[in-house]
Amino acid sequence: MPYITDMALNLWRCVMKRAEARWCLYRSLYNSSHGFNESEVKRKLAELSGGSVKLCKGENGIAELGISNSSRKNALSGTMMLELEERISDLEKWKEGKGLIVYGTEDTFCSGGDLNTIKAISNAKDGLMMCMFMQNTLTRLQRLPLISVALIQGKAIGGGAELCTACDFRLMTEGSEIRFVHKHMGIVPGWGGASRLIQLVGSRQALKLLSGALRIPPEHAISIGLADGTLSSAADSALEEAQKWITPYTKGAANVTRAMKKLIVCGREHLFEDAIRKEKDIFATVWGGPSNLQALSERTKYN
Ligand SMILES: CC[C@@H](C(=O)O)C(=O)SCCNC(=O)CCNC(=O)[C@H](O)C(C)(C)COP(=O)(O)OP(=O)(O)OC[C@H]1O[C@@H](n2cnc3c(N)ncnc32)[C@H](O)[C@@H]1OP(=O)(O)O
């Protein structure tokens, strides 16, 4: 009997995996058919070292992803870009996960690409490969079935500003700042930050922020819908406060929270008709499930 249950469970997992691939929840944007040579870009980035990206998965289903490169204000070196991709792969496999907090250690969220790394790959071909690699990674971050929050302490600059837009929410501590400085570097965002910024604040606001390379303090970010809250806490307790902030959204059964986030990903990324059909498919994964049956038996009132 347990053997049959195992078989049924494996079959169910297999069906779900195929369905999730169909809903494009874990899909990268670029592969070899787009001229993307992943192994070559990985080999180059591996030579450009410094800093680390650490992942801590909590028993409450909320993980913390820490960006750390203390001598360079948490700039992302080549090896950190690789580590970030590995951590996202890890999170894609974490079936108990419900939430994610992305933060920078010490006093900065992230100062963008490590200028030493950027200089070493400043030719057109390497730049394009790095851009595709980072777009793949940040798109996979955005598509995770986890409710994600960027905790912005200090500055989120250049690629750091782009990174924070790949999260569902942004919380900013007092005195922090988001700034797309690309214009001053003679470039435009390439990690998907412009497209995501337009989705968040609309094309007019995005044009102002990008073409003016404006400093965006918490109040401004909140007023245009870029940020979702300000945290008052000192550096050492901001993570705790972010954990509290995310809890109402992640409370409850993991499969329901994850299904909810999958709906948002589908709704955001597909045309309406396509999205509403996928909503039906995702609905079918939780209908009549343990959380649903429990709620029905409890007959909870919401008054
Ligand atoms: C393709 C990637 C591209 C993108 O898509 O946007 C990028 O992200 S390019 C990088 C864009 N970012 C920058 O240009 C940041 C430049 N740095 C700064 O503006 C400032 O350093 C800061 C981040 C605002 C911090 O200022 P402050 O608090 O005054 O500290 P310091 O300036 O003294 O910095 C300490 C130390 O850190 C080094 N640093 C900072 N950022 C980077 C970086 N991105 N790459 C490498 N190193 C960085 C800085 O040079 C200092 O080093 P030392 O001079 O050796 O002390």
Automatic annotation (TrEMBL):
One Pfam short name: ECH_1
GO biological process: fatty acid beta-oxidation
Example GO molecular function: methyl/ethyl malonyl-CoA decarboxylase activity
Location of the protein in the cell: Cytoplasm, Cytosol
Keywords attached to this entry: Cytoplasm, Lyase
Main location: cytoplasm
Enzyme kind, highest EC tier: lyase
Highest taxon of the lineage: Eukaryota
Documented EC number(s): 4.1.1.94
GO annotations of cellular component type: cytosol
Catalytic activity: (S)-methylmalonyl-CoA + H(+) = propanoyl-CoA + CO2; (2R)-ethylmalonyl-CoA + H(+) = butanoyl-CoA + CO2; (2S)-ethylmalonyl-CoA + H(+) = butanoyl-CoA + CO2
CDD domains: crotonase-like
UniProt similarity note: Belongs to the enoyl-CoA hydratase/isomerase family.
Function: Decarboxylates ethylmalonyl-CoA, a potentially toxic metabolite, to form butyryl-CoA, suggesting it might be involved in metabolite proofreading. Acts preferentially on (S)-ethylmalonyl-CoA but also has some activity on the (R)-isomer. Also has methylmalonyl-CoA decarboxylase activity at lower level.
Protein name as it appears in the record: Ethylmalonyl-CoA decarboxylase
Lineage of the organism: Eukaryota, Metazoa, Chordata, Craniata, Vertebrata
